[in-house]
Amino acid sequence: MKLESTVVVTAEYIDDLGHMNHALGLRLFEFARDEWYAKAGLWEGRPWSDDEHLGTIVLNLNVNYRRECFLDEELTVSTEPLKRGRKSYVLKQEMRKADGTVALDLTTTCLIMDMRERKTIEIPASLARHFPAAT
C-alpha cells in the first residue's frame, strides 16, 4: 500500500539559511509514517494507546537531500513498504515539490516493540501483509 500525504513547510521548519532544516524535514517524514501505520492497520485503525501495547522503533535512516524546500511550500510525501524480514522492515519515502521533483528521499529500517515487555516482536500480520514476502 502506497500512501501520499500533503505537508506545508511552516516557519517552525525554516532554519537560518532560509530553507527547511534537515532534521525537521525528518519530522515531516515521521508524521507521514504514522499516517501510513494507521491506514495499514498496525493499530487496527485506532491511534496508538497503552492498551494496544505496540510501538514502532526506528533503527536506521538513510536520507538524500536533493532540493531545497522553502516557507509555505506544499510538498507531497509518499510512503510505501519496500521489504521485510521476520522482525524488521524497510519503508521508502519521498518528498516531492509541486513540479514533481524529489526534494528528499528516505529509507527507514524499523522494528515493532511490545511496549509492556519492552521487547521486539515479529511483524504483526496486519502490517506484514502490505510488504513483499519476507527475505
Overview of this protein structure:
With 135 residues, the chain is an alpha+beta fold. Helices cover 17% and strands 40% of the residues. Strands 1, 2, 3, 4, 5 and 6 form a 6-stranded antiparallel β-sheet that branches.
What does the secondary structure layout of this molecule look like, with pairings?
Blueprint: E1 3-8, H1 22-40, E2 54-65, E3 74-84, E4 88-96, E5 102-114, E6 119-121, H2 125-128
Antiparallel strand pairs: 1-3, 2-5, 3-4, 4-5, 5-6
Offer a concise description of the structure.
With 135 residues, this protein is α+β, with helices and mostly antiparallel strands.
Instruction: Output the radius of gyration.
Output: 16 Å
Report the order of strands and helices.
Answer: EHEEEEEH
Mean pLDDT: 91
Going by helix content, strand content and strand pairing, the class is alpha+beta
Number of helices: 2
Estimate the strand proportion. 35-45%
For the biggest sheet, the summary is: 6 strands, antiparallel
General shape? elongated
User: How far from one another are the termini?
Assistant: 18 Å
- The percent range for helix content is 10-25%
The count of strands amounts to 6
Runs in which pLDDT lies below 50 for 5 or more consecutive residues are none
Annotation keywords:
single chain; 135 residues; alpha+beta; 6-stranded antiparallel β-sheet; 2 helices; 17% helix; 40% strand; elongated
